[in-house]
Amino acid sequence: MMPRIVRTAAELRDVLAPRRADGVGFVPTMGALHEGHLSLLRTARNDNGTVVLSIFVNPTQFGEAADLDAYPRTEAADVALAAEVGVDVVFAPSVSEMYPTGFATTVTVGGAITGTLEGAERGRSHFDGVATVVAKLLLSVQPDRAYFGAKDAQQVVVVRSMVADLGIPVEIVTRPTSRDADGLARSSRNTRLSPADRALATAIPRGLRAAQDAFARGIRDPRLLTDAVRNELTAVDLDPEYVEIVDADSLEPIAEIERPALLALAVRVGQVRLIDNVALVPGVDDRIVLSPAERSHA
Ligand code: PAF
């Protein structure tokens, strides 16, 4: 069945009012749905009586106007995919519905978690944009559970922190990063990669996998592990914005991996800025699976 498409928060409240008893699951997205989103939606479908998908390309979290303009907008195709995975309601508000004239509130999550990685590179205002829109979406949908992909690991930490600080009554559920056969993390931005750049981008999962292999061999020095990633990237002339290992919860730098850590990177491939990460957890071997072609390339 096709989902009901809703454009305003007032209509959303009316539509959801009689459907709350069996639980509401919510997957916030900026559209251009890919398998990663669909996996979140399937999990939400499994866990809840009603599934809400939001599609809103949030202007306040983009630093560069060009990136915002180039962001793919494919609502009709997204709604068709949403129907296939059993979404009940698609909330697709306009910019003026989300940010009416006079809108003057910003939700800022302070501290190290927004100052590092993406926050250092894109500026904290990126996470102001994310926290503000996610807070507003959560208040509009009032879900029991909201689902986020681990590819945006820092976003998950920021959202969890905001939800805890503001006492928003929702369970935040994270699902593993969804990857293509060559290991590249699925992202709406991948559609903007030329075939040649798409091939270059496979150095990202190869680099992460090289670090995971070294970690599995017992290497715990972040410098050696990030070098393993950098070597794969620089071998194909990719110059990363950052490759860092931080504590998985506080996102603070660490001298040696003794507890769960996050290895995260950002790199521009052609016109497209890509991010990726893996968890490095002592005692846990959760390596990225690379296709045979990628393994032999390594
Ligand atoms: O991850 C995203 O797609 C966005 O950051 C989100 C959570 C939908 C907020 O705009």
**Strand order in the sheet with the most strands:** 1-4-3-2-5-6
Oligomer: single chain
Describe the sheet with the most strands: 6 strands, parallel
Q: How many structural domains are formed by the residues?
A: 2
**Whole-number mean pLDDT:** 96
- Remind me, CATH topology of the largest domain? Rossmann fold
Total number of strands: 9
Describe the protein's architecture and organization:
The mean pLDDT is 96. Helices cover 41% and strands 17% of the residues. The relative contact order is 0.13. The termini are far apart. The strands form 2 sheets. It has a 6-stranded parallel β-sheet, sandwiched between helices. It has 2 domains: 4-175, HUPs (Rossmann fold, 3-Layer(aba) Sandwich); 188-297, Pantoate-beta-alanine ligase, C-terminal domain (Pantoate--beta-alanine Ligase, Chain: A,domain 2). The protein is globular and about 55 Å long. The chain is an alpha/beta fold and 298 residues long.
Can I get a quick summary?
This protein is of the alpha/beta class and 298 residues long. Helices cover 41% and strands 17% of the residues.
Task: Supply the key terms.
Pantoate--beta-alanine Ligase, Chain: A,domain 2; binds pantoate; Rossmann fold; 298 residues; three-stranded antiparallel beta sheet; alpha/beta; six-stranded parallel beta sheet
